[in-house]
Amino acid sequence: MLLAGTDSSSLTLEWAMSNLLNHPEVLKRARAELDAKFGQERLIDEPDIFELPYLQGIISETLRLYPTAPLLVPHYTSDDCTIGGFDVPCDTIVMINAWAIHRDPTLWDDPESFKPERFANGGEEPYKLMPFGQGRRACPGMGLAQRVVGLTLGSLIQCFEWEKVSEMKVDMSEGKGLTMPKAVPLEAMCKARPIVNKVLS
Ligand code: HEM
C-alpha cells in the first residue's frame, strides 16, 4: 500500500512541475487562478483544491501524458469475453496500455501537446483518461492521490516563483521502473512569494 501510494504520487508531482516549467504560460495561469480565488493571505487547504478547475486540468493533463503506471497492472480474465472486438478466452493475462490510449490521435485532439484547458467545463469524456485504471480493480487510493497531488502542487505554486535552471527545456524523457520515473530528475529554482513571510511570521 505504501509502495503503491508514495512513488506514484511523488512522480506525478515531478512530472507536473516539469510540465509547468516547460509551459510558463500555464504556470502563470495556475498562479492567477490561485491568487484570484484565495489571495496571498492564507495557505490553501485540502477542500480548496476542488475550487481550482485549472489546477485540476494540469493534474489530469499530466496524468494523461505521463501516467506513472503506464500499463496499469496485469488483469486476468475470469471468463471468455470480447475486448475491443477481440475474443479473449478465460484465464488470459490482459495488459492495458494506458500510455498509448492517452496519446491516441483518434481519441484526443493534438495528443502530444500539454493543454490543461482540454479538461475545462467537462471538455473530455472521462472514460478516455485511465491513469488509475477503471472498474472494480481501479486504484483505491485515487481520491487520496488527487488530494495529495492537488494540495502539494497548489501550495508549491501559491508559495514560490519557479524557474528552470537553464534556458533549455526540462528533459521529459521517460526512465525505466515499476512506476514511470523521469530519466533525468527535475532540478528547478524557486523564490519565496510574500505569502511565505506572512504565514511564517
Ligand atoms: C498519482 C497517484 C496514483 C496513481 C497514478 C495510481 C495508479 C494505480 C493504478 C493504475 C492501479 C492499477 C489499477 C488497475 O488494476 O487497473 C493502482 C492500483 C492500486 N493502487 Fe494506486 N495509484 C496512485 C496512488 C495510490 C495511493 C495514494 C494509494 C494508497 C495509499 C494507492 C493504492 C493502490 C492499491 C492498493 C492498488 C491495488 C488495487 C487492487 O489490486 O485491487 N494508489 N493504482
TrEMBL record:
CC terms in the record's Gene Ontology section: membrane
CC cofactor: heme
Coiled-coil intervals: none
- The positions annotated for binding heme are C139
Localization per Swiss-Prot or TrEMBL: Membrane
Recorded GO molecular functions are: heme binding; iron ion binding; monooxygenase activity; oxidoreductase activity, acting on paired donors, with incorporation or reduction of molecular oxygen
Keywords of this protein's UniProt record, alphabetized? Heme, Iron, Membrane, Metal-binding, Monooxygenase, Oxidoreductase, Transmembrane, Transmembrane helix
**Gene3D superfamilies, sorted:** Cytochrome P450 (1.10.630.10)
Q: Read off the SUPFAM superfamilies from this record.
A: Cytochrome P450
The record's similarity note reads: Belongs to the cytochrome P450 family.
Q: What is this protein called?
A: Putative cytochrome P450
From what organism does this protein derive?
Answer: Rosa chinensis
